[in-house]
Design goal:
homodimer; 337 residues; alpha/beta; 434 Repressor (Amino-terminal Domain); Rossmann fold; 3 domains; six-stranded parallel beta sheet; five-stranded mixed beta sheet; 11 helices; DNA-binding
DNA sequence: TTGAAAGCGCTAACAC
DNA sequence: GTGTTAGCGCTTTCAA
């Protein structure tokens, strides 16, 4: 309950024999209407270093115009033991922002807090990750804060970084078609989720199949079915020789379902998935995957946000990043070729 | 850059026609030296509700004695795309604290920030997750803050929740021994990490083998070797018929190594691992695992911390939670039985 | 080139 | 019962 003993700006001021204002101005490198004698600056910097002084970024935000704080929104829990690529994006993002002199602040975590509510302290911008729809970020959008959505639909006034699931799906279908497959199924996740990739990939599949003159295998739009049922229906009832899975987790279940059904992968049926995360490459057979550009998403998000905060009048940009086909063991020509 | 428009306590005060203090006292349910007319209380609550007022928890911590904030320390990045169980612990912890009226606050994230530095705003307690050693939490320990370490060694003045790797390892060896195995290897992770489980499990393995009169298979203490090399050496050079893996990730690589070496699991070699996380149960073969009590760790951590904060003179407690054997397909009697 | 003082949102000690 | 005021750590006017 005791006050954390980290040094305050007053202590630095005392130690260096100047006022708090001067300390603040020196440490923040103020140029406007301000200059210091070199000796003073050095004394201040020395005192700060000796005390290991670090300003409290949130207190600073009480009064400062610019805070160098970027809020990371959308983190309402720590994951469910199932990890997605978004962590990789968040890491890349953090490092990029840091390089530009910003810090990332994560909202206080509480089940009661709305997921994308702008923070209650002042920040220079916000990143909304994995928002399901545009409505979810309504409050953020109306706050006037500059923001970017990452891997979710953009809001009216924000920039966005998304992933080109359309092209990715087309490339996936193309890959399988080139191998000789003519009956290609799509496996939605076993469990509902609200992320828009759920619809995006499903619809992209239907479109891509249509484009190349193949019929979508029934069941592709059926949610809540087990991987086992999806695979059995696709292969046994509809003659599918390949399955594109919504993500790696469902693909792993498909591999197991195949084993149970005495189907060899890829000999009897090819399996591939979106999102190339561990352990995709280590499975037997290793999984062909449409890799998502996780790190690039983070970097782009940081870049787009900085554009906005540093040039407030610029129009928010929308970037769509390509996915990348990683061919491994789980896809091969169909049995009858 | 514009100030987020979230309402301040002054606005609530204006709207309800009372002073800020009264608003504060009503909303914080003060009892000591304070009572309100019911009409006033209702007006305040109504105004707060209408404005959707939420106090800024960090600003509150500037002056409040008690903040109802618990700091979560140790989160320096968002993960590496590889799942861990600690997220499950953190979730359980958050919900438990929330139920008791606390909120969790995550430090501002920055690569420059020391991992376990106590926050620079006032909190009622702290949780340090996955600390590697006691030294890492030195600053925290000296701060006088009440804290718990979760899944890491305790500090001199803090409570701790750990996992009984010793008993777990013994149970793993017992399981395999009961199946008939006499030559049981241990596979350390491919990549170095600093977490103390690295030594704990390795040493526990050596001890457990010793206790039942079996010889530890050489290589168990060799870090940085690939799963493939570990398995080949254990099976080919030393006749191992079973391998206990440090975690699920290395176990998955062992499965692949086995396939490459034309070893069937579990027919030729049994594989099991610590940490039962997805996709352990979905692999082919599904992995026998020593499950870690992730959620319980979180709950216990919250409980131990609350004990400390609510009864500051009580001695910090140390809880060690049991692991649980989950038998699946990847372990079976050795080939020659 | 620097300091004093006000103020950010909130709580707590002290009035009345 | 309720208001007034000081102060938490920091930045930013305004003065000098």
């Amino acid at each position: 309950m005791s006050r954390p003993s980290s040094p305050s700006i007053s202590q630095v001021a005392n130690r260096s024999g100047v006022s708090k204002s001067t300390v603040s101005r020196v440490l923040n490198n103020h140029q406007h209407n301000f200059s210091v004698k070199d000796a003073t600056r050095r004394r201040v910097l020395a005192a700060a270093a000796e005390l290991n002084y670090r300003p409290n970024p949130i207190v600073r935000s009480l009064s400062a115009k610019r805070t160098n704080l970027i809020a990371l929104l959308g983190l309402t829990d720590f994951g469910s033991g199932i990890r997605g690529g978004i962590e990789l994006a968040a890491n890349a993002l953090m490092h990029r922002l840091y390089a530009d002199g910003y810090e990332l602040c994560v909202n206080v975590l509480s089940p009661r807090e709305p997921a994308f509510a702008p923070p209650r302290w002042r920040v220079d911008g916000a990143i909304a990750i994995n928002n399901h729809d545009a409505q979810q970020i309504d409050a953020l959008d109306r706050s006037g804060l500059k923001y970017v959505t990452v891997n979710g639909p953009p809001g009216p006034h924000g920039a966005s970084v998304t992933v080109d699931d359309d092209a990715g799906t087309r490339a996936a279908v193309h890959h399988l078609r080139t191998l000789g497959h003519r009956c290609i199924a799509y496996a939605p996740p076993e469990e509902y989720n609200l992320h828009d990739s759920l619809h995006r990939r499903r619809d992209a599949y239907a479109r891509a199949m249509d484009e190349v003159g193949l019929a979508a295998v029934p069941g592709y739009d059926q949610l809540g079915r087990s991987a086992f049922d999806t695979l059995r229906s696709a292969v046994r009832d509809h003659g599918a020789t390949a399955v594109i899975a919504y993500h790696d987790q469902i693909a792993i279940k498909l591999l197991r379902a195949a084993a149970t059904l005495n189907l060899r992968v890829p000999h009897d049926v090819s399996v591939m998935c979106f999102n190339d995360l561990p352990p995709c490459g280590d499975l037997v057979p290793s999984l062909t995957a449409m890799a998502l550009p996780n790190e690039q998403m983070g970097e782009q998000a940081a870049a787009l946000l900085l554009e906005q905060t540093e040039n407030p009048s610029s129009d928010p940009r929308h970037v769509k990043l390509p996915e990348r086909l990683v061919i491994r063991e789980s896809t091969a020509p169909p049995p009858n070729v």
